[in-house]
Records
---
Amino acid sequence: MTEAEETKFYQNLGRQIRAGTKPPELNRPIVCRECGPVWSMQPAAILSDSCFWCGNRFAGRPIPRPPISPEMQKILQEIGSFNRKEPVKKSAGFVGSKFL
Ligand SMILES: [Zn+2]
């Protein structure tokens, strides 16, 4: 991909994400610590600190949800809550399985 093609690719991706539409390129279901289950791009790690949809969460825009695999379910139980409106402060830690 040339730089111009890459710019166009990400602009197009961004447009779809802002519209709350799942771009076909995002076909990897993952768990974002902030957003919960979301679509990401291969080969993303199954648990991520942030994702393509964090901007939608901040802005209150829709986030299309992937099916939750048993592996994702386990992670969701481990991390406790998500769906946060505010970013997690880096100084925040865990108490048990819940975010502070
Ligand atoms: Zn996110």
Note: The first helix runs from residue 3 to 18.
---
Amino acid sequence: MLKEFITEYNTYYFNSNNFTLSTSLDNSNNDIGKEHDNNILRKVVINISNSCNLSCAYCYADGGNYGMTSQLMDITTADKIIEQLSTSGVRCIKRLILFGGEPFLNIDLFVYLIEELSKNIELNKIETVTNGTVLNKKVKETIERYHPFLTISLDGPQLIHDRLRGKGSHRRTLKFIEYLKEINYENFEIASTYTRMHQKYGFQKEDIYDYFTQMDVRFNINNVFSKNKILAVKEMEMSEEKRKLFINQSLEDIINNNDKNYISPIVYDVLLSMIFKSKAESFCDDIDPETTITFDVDGTVKSCFRFWGTHNSDKVSHFNNKDNFTKCKDCWCKGMCVECVANMIDGYSPIISEEGQFIDCRKQILMEYCIYKIIELSQDKERLSKLVNNFERFIRYA
Ligand SMILES: C[S@@+](CC[C@H](N)C(=O)[O-])C[C@H]1O[C@@H](n2cnc3c(N)ncnc32)[C@H](O)[C@@H]1O
Ligand code: SF4
Ligand code: SF4
């Protein structure tokens, strides 16, 4: 499909199959083929601990155990996973994510999985998500030896963080971050969950943004998904005007290489498609057993970690197919559109209800605005080249 963009410079045609912009109507319809090497897995996520030492007010994982009995993954289960992966011909795992609950509560298995898997399989990137409160000798040794990419959860200043995550947790997580700074460890980012409680205590999102900017860390801030009125953010959506300003700011941040700044998801999705020709065939392309596998704590295979424990669902493939929703089926920007299917099924999506009804979508307007901005800045070749060349540094999940 070709979408017209009329500007003061020219009329451009955006080809929504291959994400190219052209001034000619002949913008060829070469579709982007889905290349896949059966021996390479894009992502493997393993629940090594559905135990947790915190009990955060908003936790979608029910305090870390996903509605099951709290337990650490044992070696027998890990061996079965290693055997399954090693004998299935997998040569390379691009992202190995050791997850939980709190993964550092099972540090021995963390190390065991890396050591054993890497005997037969190339591990491109090892990652984990931690609450940053478990910092013992073994955890330090593991970080220094295997250099995992760490996502550390920190919700803002002490008052709000401790209110949500428990008294004393802020101090412990800051200690963890201080340790990383002491050893000049840059392979981490902060993930902050923003809630109504922040608003109640007077913390606007901008305040949290400033807090992390002053800490001089790479970070992202996500709204909580919750049906609890005390937690769900009031005015979940930023106004359209604010989102457009955020798009402008994000484009400038990329041009100026401010790679610690969190950029607009709209800019992210548009540039990923236009520059890297990445096409979102479904709402979540990670839900694809050919490229992504997740193992629950008992070793069972699930399509995504959000379906671990009691959260399993048989509606995943229906919700993941854009063609099952009339508005999406004929949408010019569907190839750039990524949405969380678990959030739809659990009723947290502003676009598709848990009953499977299309609600509303502002993305088309925002993606259109973003492409107009790209056309505008492309009149200055130097700025365009900076945008294209710098963007790679902003990619969080390769
Ligand atoms: C389930 S935790 C597991 C890892 C580790 N225990 C931690 O807290 O970082 C993974 C991430 O999900 C976030 N999270 C948990 N519940 C959430 C919710 N309801 N909405 C948005 N993010 C949530 C946490 O803040 C954390 O960054
Ligand atoms: S630390 Fe992580 S897993 Fe534990 S309760 Fe908090 S969000 Fe859930
Ligand atoms: S209508 Fe919205 S949700 Fe549906 S494919 Fe288009 S951008 Fe995505």
Note: The chain has 14 helices and eleven strands.
